[in-house]
Amino acid sequence: MPFNTVLTRKLGIRVPVVQGGMQWVGYAEMAAAVSNAGGLGIITALTQPSPEDLRKEIRKCKTMTKYPFGVNLTLLPAMVPPDYGAYAQVVLDEGIRIVETAGNSPGPIIKQLKQANPPCVILHKCTTIRHALSAVKLGVDFLSIDGFECAGHVGETDITNLILLSRARQTMPVPFIASGGFADGQGLAAALSLGAEGINMGTRFMCTVESPIHNSIKQAIVDADETDTELVLRRWKNTSRLFKNKVTEQATKIERESTTGKFEEVAPYVSGKRGREVFINGDKDFGVWTAGQVIGLIHDIPTCEELISRIETEAIETLSKASSLIVDKQPEPDIAGKSMGDMSANPSSDHNKKVPGEAQIYDIGKSKL
């Protein structure tokens, strides 16, 4: 049963579920599997070493799905930054008109994408309301509101989604989707109830059959609890939520104990190159890799089709159940004992009596504490 939200209408998808951009995960196979299942798959641009390699990956994805898919462009600080403009131009040249953006100073890229004919639909990821309002001024179509539960860069404000999504509902002049902490249909139903038009999932999609990472890492996610993540690099205001392992323990120890505060001391431990190797060799302790607190909700490794179908069913059942809680007439109470209208149940005559070892609960009776 298709959903009808601003997100599904705008993107032409059946289920309001977006597979967020993920470094070393967002390849054509992953994106196509999600799109074929009814959600929106996304290729991660910077997983490709060059703009031309991104072009090849987009073309490959086109052969694997007839449904809409997008591209993620994340702008992060770097000594030698990638040519973001060239990556964006490839996206436009290849006819992709759905782009997820994130990171610092996205204005020039958003302008480039919006000047296309037709212009791109842009989903911009933010961890604060302040940044979200700034993105609105740049002309984004959707905001992806990223709560503190999320994997990767969590920001520095530590606001979880129950508050962040409600603040977005109160203040955002454009539609938004919920990101961070979502894995099932109950989560989708909750997000929709809080005002979101859909959800964005990353860690949950890492743990699917089509995810291009080593099966041992998928199993590590299944075996993990919600407490098995670590916040790293907070000292340098670049806080990231990572899977808790031997390397994150070493990194946080340096972060706590360093007397110089130089990033160079911790840099070897948070190398992205080592993190990529984790997904290839299957050793969860080889390097750092991102994972959200949602790992505590993940208990299997389904196909994307099975996962999205399950989310769809669960969300419909949850929303229907919630709707059934509203009735025309309040039913009779099930509480045991006499009704409140029965004067023999009224202990008013005992209100001034003090009974050792007992407390009086007015209008109900006496109860042992």
What characteristics describe this protein?
3-stranded antiparallel beta sheet; 369 residues; 36% helix; 13 helices; alpha/beta; 13 strands
Write a structural description.
36% of the residues lie in helices and 15% in strands. The chain has 13 helices and 13 strands. The protein has helices spanning 6-11, 28-36, 51-64, 84-93, 107-114, 129-138, 161-171, 185-193, 203-206, 215-223, 246-257, 272-281, 304-324; strands spanning 17-19, 41-44, 69-75, 98-103, 121-126, 142-146, 152-153, 176-179, 199-201, 229-232, 240-243, 358-361, 365-368. The protein has an eight-stranded parallel β-sheet with strand order 1-9-8-6-5-4-3-2. Strands 7-11-10 form a three-stranded antiparallel β-sheet, covered by helices on one side.
Secondary-structure topology with pairs:
Layout: H1 6-11, E1 17-19, H2 28-36, E2 41-44, H3 51-64, E3 69-75, H4 84-93, E4 98-103, H5 107-114, E5 121-126, H6 129-138, E6 142-146, E7 152-153, H7 161-171, E8 176-179, H8 185-193, E9 199-201, H9 203-206, H10 215-223, E10 229-232, E11 240-243, H11 246-257, H12 272-281, H13 304-324, E12 358-361, E13 365-368
Parallel strand pairs: 1-9, 2-3, 3-4, 4-5, 5-6, 6-8, 8-9
Antiparallel strand pairs: 7-11, 10-11, 12-13
Helix pairs in contact: 2-3, 3-4, 4-5, 8-13
InterPro entries: Aldolase_TIM, NMO
Region (Disordered): 327-369
Keywords: Flavoprotein, FMN, Oxidoreductase
Give a short synopsis of this structure:
It contains 13 helices and 13 strands. The chain is of the alpha/beta class and 369 residues long. An 8-stranded parallel β-sheet has the order 1-9-8-6-5-4-3-2. A 3-stranded antiparallel β-sheet has the order 7-11-10, with helices on one face.
